Amino acid sequence: MQLTGDRFTAETAIFGNDIATLPNFPAEIRAPQGTLPGVSSFQLHFASFDIVTPGDVPDVLVAMNPAALKANLRDLPRGGVIIVDTADFTKRNLAKIGWASNPLEDGTLANYSVHALDLTGLATGAVAEFELSRKDSSRTKNMFALGLLSWLYSRPTEGTERFLAEKFAKKPQIRDANIAAFKAGYAYGETTEVFEVQYHVEPAPMPKGRYRQVSGNLATAYGLMVGAEKAGMQLFLGSYPITPASDILHELSRRKDVGVMTFQAEDEIAAVGAAIGASFAGALGMTSTSGPGVALKSEAIGLAVMTELPLVVVNVQRSGPSTGMPTKTEQADLVQSIWGRNGEAPVPVLAAKSSTDCFDTAVEACRIAVKYRTPVIMLSDGYLANGAEPWKIPDLDTIEPIEPNFATEMNGEVDGKPHFMPYERDPETLARAWAIPGTPGLEHRIGASRRPPARATCRTTPTITS
Question: 83-107 in b/e burial notation, b at 16+ Cβ within 10 A?
Fold first, then answer.
């Protein structure tokens, strides 16, 4: 369903509509097939004008099984359109979700415009010539549904056909079957007159420029790369995979071509420790995580505060305490981000307002971290991370450079002799001097002060009883 929704979104973005998406993943690990906890959905809101959310209620619900219908029916307003695959409406599947009777037959859906179609059967028939297994044949129902929706909303088809040809280039049988199912779905809508209307949504007026579809995590990764580039520093990401932030690590790990270095650590603490070490060595250290990871990184963030080293911490928030619900969004970590450290350890906290704003927020986080020699926490969330919007690709020449101003000479005296003072303040920013290890004459040590352990004493008062 995620692939199907992503393809419909891509074609809609190419057409020129404004878009906002809401991918919704099951929080449970391997929920039983056909049950309510296992439902995966993809909601897309598109229009001929500026929009800012994926919408509260859908106009059209495409349900591929009974569980998908029941899980999302309450969001559909009266009179909404339901396109439902009848293939899985068996007594067994209905019983899994607590329906004693078939809602397609008992009047449950009387207030909706229902199109009950055997999408699985139609798709299987469309790909019969390719002699696929029963399982592979039935999987093409998603492409059949995508073709049907593409006709219903007058979406272009060339991009999806090209995408399928490239994705399954090494499996020509699967490639040709999926393309055939997609075309069959489009033809079904065009020729059967099952639907009374076909919708035409005009392109949205937008400032001239070059646009692309971008998710919040992808925009964050691009922003971090641009921030490091504008500072003339190598980007180092120390990270431990965690939903919903992992896509940042995935994207940056692919960018060795522009000098990005990524380190997948064994845990959250090692990840942030490596990032702090990279900053000490003169790179721009960053780490990406979610709420549970921020809790584990808090002591190391305090170390970066005390040593006054640049560090960007990207917190893609998710729902619940502890490990919580990884695929459900919640802006749950604001208080933790502002106050969640020991002692006097304030840090700047920036929050993105949209998926595309993640780019600008990431660049600004890099700027503040480098200019003021401080950790910066950037807040995103699962909704922004996975959602997509049209993004006008910026002119990088318009983004102001970030000056690291590395120390290159002595800045003080000790006993009348020139000496490097690593904590000497810049009169304008109050940031400390930052000398890269190996700079001649500027050898120094920084670190957190630590009191020696006190000598333990023990007093006892013996009591003897009989």
Answer: bbbbbbbeeebbebbebeeebbeee
Q: What is the pTM of this model?
A: 0.87
- Residue for token pair 């207030």: 111
Strand 284-289 to strand 235-239: parallel, antiparallel, or no bridges (unpaired)?
parallel
Helix (H/G/I), strand (E/B), else coil: 280:
helix
Beta strands in 337-426 (DSSP E): 349-351, 375-381, 388-392, 412-414, 417-419
Contact 272, 280 (CB under 8 A): no
- Please give the full DSSP string across 209-274, using - where no structure is assigned: S-EEEEEHHHHHHHHHHHHHHHHT--EEEEE---TTTHHHHHHHHT-GGGT-EEEE-SSHHHHHHH
Rounded CA separation 108/257 (Å): 56
pLDDT tens digits, 9-20: 999 998 999 999
Which H helix or E strand runs over 28? none
**Closest to 261 in 3D by CA, of 294, 295, 292, 236:** 236
User: Do 321 and 294 touch, CB atoms closer than 8 A?
Assistant: no
Residue 406, SS3 per DSSP = coil
Q: State which amino acid sits at residue 142.
A: N
Contact 326, 244 (CB under 8 A): yes
Tens of pLDDT along 275-294? Answer: 999 999 999 999 999 999 99
- Token output for 188: 């079904």
pLDDT at 287: 98
